[in-house]
Specification:
By secondary structure, the chain is of the alpha+beta class. Helices cover about 30% and strands about 30% of the residues. The protein has a five-stranded antiparallel beta sheet with strand order 2-3-1-5-4. The chain is globular, with a radius of gyration of 15 Å. About 20% of the residues are buried.
C-alpha cells in the first residue's frame, strides 16, 4: 500500500509562480513545462474553450479545467504551452476575458513528470 501512495505522490504536478530570474537555476535540475494558471473562470467554460482561446499564442500541449461547486474564484484552469516564449506571449497579452469574464492569469513553471 505504501508503494501506491509514493507512486501517486510522484505523479502529482507542482506549479510554481516565481520570478523569471530563478528559472535558469531551476532548469539546471529539472526540465520545465511552461504554462498559465487561470482563476476566476466562468463556470460554463470547458477545457476545449480555454485551449481554443489560448491557441493563437502558440501550441497548447495541455489544458485542464477544475470545475468545483463553489464560487467562480474557485474555478480554475492550467494551460501548458510547448515553449517558454509562447507562454510568455499569452501571459503578456492580458487582461484575458474568457467567455465574457475577466480572469486572473499567472505565469507558472512546473517540473516535467
Amino acid at each position: 500500500m505504501d508503494s501506491d501512495i509514493s507512486e501517486r505522490a510522484h505523479k502529482k504536478s507542482i506549479f510554481m509562480e516565481l520570478p523569471k530570474k530563478y528559472w535558469a537555476d531551476l532548469s539546471k535540475f529539472y526540465d520545465l513545462d511552461h504554462g498559465l494558471f487561470i482563476t476566476n473562470l466562468n463556470p460554463n467554460i470547458n477545457e476545449g474553450y480555454v485551449a481554443a482561446y489560448f491557441k493563437p499564442f502558440g501550441c497548447v500541449t495541455m489544458c485542464k479545467v477544475k470545475n468545483s461547486s463553489g464560487s467562480s474564484e474557485s474555478r480554475l484552469a492550467y494551460v501548458r504551452f510547448s515553449t517558454e516564449a509562447e507562454a510568455d506571449e499569452a501571459d503578456w497579452a492580458g487582461p484575458h476575458f474568457i467567455g465574457g469574464t475577466e480572469c486572473k492569469v499567472r505565469r507558472v513553471v512546473s517540473p516535467k513528470i
